[in-house]
């Protein structure tokens, strides 16, 4: 029940944040390659708006490519919806039980929070994920999950400089916990926000 509450709170917070964006910010690029902020927002509510049979039909249309399917739907839905609708879809479904096929509710929180970072970090808004939610996400970091997102954490030690958390062993990569989370999720973290190695070589 607590995890359900964390998910609902994250969705409501992000919906409120989206409500405050300017049109220029809605059309700005996100950390997701090829997606503006509005495509990310549309994608975040995909699981609420499409039934499983409808999604399977879309997957067949995309010739079995999940990436091709989500990319096409994000662009189509972002073009068809107003910015108010994109925010409302998150808010109105704050307690929706949707979760990714693998990972359950914790993965649902990760989906929402990381896509939220795709928006806020790209826009330079400085939003911090509340620590109770962030701790759940940090507990989900693993070599397997990182590989799914195209990140190889072999020989790397992630070290947060704002909370007591680390993962792995090897060459240290230091930064805020949520920037390290983005790194583990395969995102290109803005230049200078992560430090690699004991001597502090900035990543960019």
Counted up, domains total 2
Radius of gyration: 17 Å
Q: Which bin fits the share of residues in helices?
A: 40-55%
Q: Topology as H/E string?
A: HHHHHHHHHHEEEHEE
Structural class computed from helices and strand pairing: alpha+beta
Q: State the separation between the terminal residues, measured CA to CA.
A: 39 Å
The main sheet comes to: 5 strands, mixed
Oligomer: single chain
Q: Kindly state the number of beta strands.
A: 5
How are the strands ordered across the major sheet? 2-1-3-4-5
Q: Assign an overall shape.
A: globular
Indicate the low-confidence ranges by residue numbers.
Answer: none
Beta-strand residue percentage: 5-15%
Question: What's the number of helices?
Answer: 11
Keywords:
8% strand; 55% helix; MDMPI_metal-binding; alpha+beta; 5-stranded mixed β-sheet; 204 residues; globular
Structural commentary:
The chain is α+β, with helices and mostly antiparallel strands. It has two domains: 2-134; 141-202, no CATH class. The protein is built from eleven helices and five strands, in the order ααααααααααβββαββ. A hairpin with a 4-residue loop joins strand 4 (195-196) and strand 5. Helix 3 packs antiparallel against helix 8 (104-123). The longest helix has 20 residues, at 104-123. The termini are far apart.
């Amino acid at each position: 029940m607590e995890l359900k509450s964390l998910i609902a709170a994250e969705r409501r917070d992000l919906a409120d944040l989206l409500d405050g964006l300017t049109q220029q910010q809605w059309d700005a690029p996100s950390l997701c390659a090829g997606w503006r902020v509005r495509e990310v927002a549309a994608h975040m509510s995909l699981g609420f708006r499409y039934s499983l049979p409808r999604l399977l039909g879309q997957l067949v249309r995309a010739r079995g490519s999940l990436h091709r399917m989500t990319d096409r739907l994000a662009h189509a839905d972002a073009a068809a919806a107003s910015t108010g609708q994109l925010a409302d879809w998150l808010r109105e479904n704050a307690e929706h039980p949707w979760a990714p096929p693998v990972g359950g509710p914790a993965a649902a929180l990760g989906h929402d929070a990381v896509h939220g970072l795709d928006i806020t970090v790209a826009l330079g808004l400085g939003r911090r994920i509340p620590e109770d939610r962030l701790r759940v996400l940090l507990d989900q970091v693993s070599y397997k999950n990182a590989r799914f997102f195209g990140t190889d954490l072999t020989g790397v030690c992630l070290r947060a400089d704002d909370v007591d958390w680390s993962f792995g062993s090897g060459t240290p990569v230091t930064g805020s916990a949520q920037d390290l989370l983005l790194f583990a999720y395969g995102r290109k973290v803005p230049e200078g926000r992560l430090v690699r190695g004991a001597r502090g070589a900035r990543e960019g």
